[in-house]
Every structure is written in C-alpha cells, then in structure tokens.
Amino acid sequence: MLDVRKLRLLRELAHRETIAAVAEALAYTPSAVSQQLAALEREAGVPLLARTGRRVTLTPAALALVAHTETILAVLEQATAELATTRTELTGTLRIGAFPTAVRTILASALVALSTAHPRLELRVTELDPALAPDALRAETLDVALVQEYDYVPVAADPALHSEPLFEEIVYLAARGTEPLADHRESPWIASTPGTLCHTMTVRACEAAGFTPRIRHHADDFGTVLALVAAGQGVALVPEFGARECPAGVVLSPLPTRRRTRLAYRRGTGNHPAVRAARVALRESAGRSHR
C-alpha cells in the first residue's frame, strides 16, 4: 500500500521542482524528503525520479502517480469535510490568505461576519501576494485564499485546487495627464516587486502597447504607488480597489485590461463547514464592496 504522506511529497516535488523547495514548504529537512521519496520508489516498484547531477525530474510513472494523488487527496479532504458537518458548532482554525487591498476592502468585513456567527472559530489571516497562494493552499498552511489573474497574466488551472469567481476590477493608468498608454513609452514607470502578478501585468500591458516600460520605482502598496505618481515620479497601472483613495493631481484613465479575483481552496474542502462559511461571508462582502 502506498503511503499518502509520501505521495504528497511527490506531488509537491512536481509543483516545486526541487527537493529543497519541498522541504522548506513542508517543514522537512532535504535529506528527510529524499529518504521518503526513495522509500516511495521502493513501495511503487518502479523508478519515480530521474537524477542528472543535482537535478531531479519525475519519470512518466511518477507523473501518472501524481495525477492519482490529486484525486486521493481530494477524496480524503471530502471525507474530513463530511465528518465536520456532524458537529453542532464550528470550532477549530480557519486560515485565510489575501492580498493587501482585499484585506482592507473585502476581508475585514467578512471577518466580522464570521466572528459574529461562529465565535468559537479561530480565524487566522495571512497577507500575501496571490502568486504565492496556490503553494500555500497545497501545503495546507492556508485553507482559503484569494487568487488573481490579469488579462495579460493568465493563471493555469491547478488540479489540487478548486476556485470560484469573486469579483472583477478595471485596471487604470495612473498619471498626471490624460495621455493614452502608448504615449508613455518614454515615461518613468512605477511597478510592483519583480515576480509579482502586478509587476508582470505592467510589463506585458506595456509590451502589448508596443514598448517595454522603464521602471524606476518598485512599490507593492498602491497608496504608495499613487503618492509617487502624484509626486511626478512616473506613471503606473493600478486596479480599481487600489485606486479608491486617489491623491489630488492624479488622473485615472480606465483601460480595457481587467483584474479578476477568485476564491480558492483545496479540492474536496468546499463543503467543509468552516470553508463553506468563509465562502459565503467573502462573497457577501465582495458584493457589498463592489457595488
């Protein structure tokens, strides 16, 4: 019988690509991960890992096993969720991940509703970039998270997760004037930290307009971004929720680009009472905030 815990390590290796990354995410040592994967190979009776120097890749048999693992883990999550429905009161811990503007505009109101309706449910919030949320959900350090994609930054479906639409935002060009995006090829730009979805969106939107932006400043807080625009330090792309408190002198020009936020959780957990309560509270809060 294959060990589910070892299968989970193999699944994470398929996503994270290195044993060191798997060890860091799941609080193992690299040697422990290697030992567990070697034991899984013995249990499976076929090679699962191909080693070339320090690199490790998954064999076709391992990739097929990962696909089965996604189903197995989802069924176990569903079984846990069904057991939880037999309790008369929501207890335990619910871990929610959200990006900064959503914490202010969506999550705060949802937390009030959840705390009022379920006072024994312990709520824990982590603020993080949406690009990091899928890994955190798979690693079970989060139970529910808000994930995003932009028109220019599509996100591939993750077989370990289920997601549902939450809301959509306009993306604005924030500048001191009303010039179109294409006229800012020589302007200095303000963008988020490289590697974030917002940074990638800025670069790709500009490339679609025919130029590569000259990024002078990096800031992840949209209030800071707009303050820099107001100070004449450059132009930026800012989504609707990040532009609600716009300083004087900044012009917001709507673009056809959209940012879409989805509510994500592990497959099989959607009907867990705590996750279901969070889904309801977040949808209601998003509806009020996006009117």
From TrEMBL:
Q: Which organism is it from?
A: Nocardia amamiensis
Keywords, in A-Z order: Activator, DNA-binding, Transcription, Transcription regulation
The entry's family comment says: Belongs to the LysR transcriptional regulatory family.
Q: Which domain of life is it from?
A: Bacteria
User: Can you give the residue ranges of the HTH lysR-type domain?
Assistant: 2-59
Pfam families in the cross-refs: HTH_1, LysR_substrate
Task: Supply the name of the protein.
Answer: LysR family transcriptional regulator
Q: Which PANTHER family match?
A: LYSR SUBSTRATE-BINDING, TRANSCRIPTIONAL DUAL REGULATOR HCAR-RELATED
What InterPro entries does the record tag this protein with? LysR_HTH_N, LysR_subst-bd, WH-like_DNA-bd_sf, WH_DNA-bd_sf
PROSITE patterns in the record = HTH_LYSR
